[in-house]
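Need tokens for this chain, all 349 residues.
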Amino acid sequence: MQSLVIRRPDDWHLHVRDGAALTHTVAATAAVFARAIIMPNLKVPITTVIQAAAYKERILQACDSSMSFEPLMTLYLTDNTSVSEIYIAKASGLIHGCKLYPAGATTNSDSGVTSISHITKVLAAMAEVGLPLLVHGEVTDKHVDIFDREKTFIDLILNPLLEKIPSLRVVLEHITTRDAVNFVLSGSENLAATITPQHLLFNRNDMLAGGIRPHLYCLPILKRQIHQQALREVVASGHPRFFLGTDSAPHAKLTKESDCGCAGCYSAPVALPLYATIFEELNALDKLEAFASINGANWYGVPINEECVELTRRNFAVPTNLPFLDDAIVPLMAGCTLPWRLNDAHFIE
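Here are the structure tokens for all 349 residues:
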């Protein structure tokens, strides 16, 4: 196969930051993806519909006028989120989900939920109106090993929550373990998951063996090979409740390559060629379109994109650095050559 045409994809988990960073981050996604679920964990988190509307405008202002791109906005849940804000969010048509960050779990999560018991009424209201809960599925208890935090979250928090509120629609985001795969497979149609390119490409040996590679450090952290293999098997199966979410998370090079480096992989500029490379390795290129362009739209209940994109089999040298604010940013797979690249005129009516 020398070329591959698929429906224009969507990214169901994306960080673009705010302010001047938007001029560097938004275009990389908008050039390929039609829509993206925008994460609300800014330094001042997006907790209200009014804040989300203003943030959406800032994102759109960073887009070239020729780009057709729709940011799908979310709210950041806190211990103080009100039931009335959920009703406002649903009525607005602007909000596509609410994000659960356990306090301290990842970047800018200090304002997150300290106990699921604090938002029980909020979650019940979300179930009532059909607003999805988007979950960073990790516990933050210091006695729990970092490699066990996802499984522990599923066992102790998410499973009991869904037994209590079975109608709640949930996306378990950026899953990393065989346990999460099996949990979604055994769940109802209300339960789905996103999978990143880094968790399909790498395991913890890639990050730690022979030297620490800070640009592979992300949260949830890379796991054992058996977990990586479970993720690869489920995307190759074509299961409809697993879909593309890059979790592309931009951090300046200096903040990644420091004595306390930030968590996150920046994949937006290379995401689709990366996924194509992975699916080809799995002999599953025929499943890429559903994973990238159909499953997420169907689960969220939005139209499948009419436009198409074309990938061609031509070597694509991933840049070692890209401009970012006053520094640079290192993309995922920097310096490597991928076998697939987007056609220069990649949108097809």
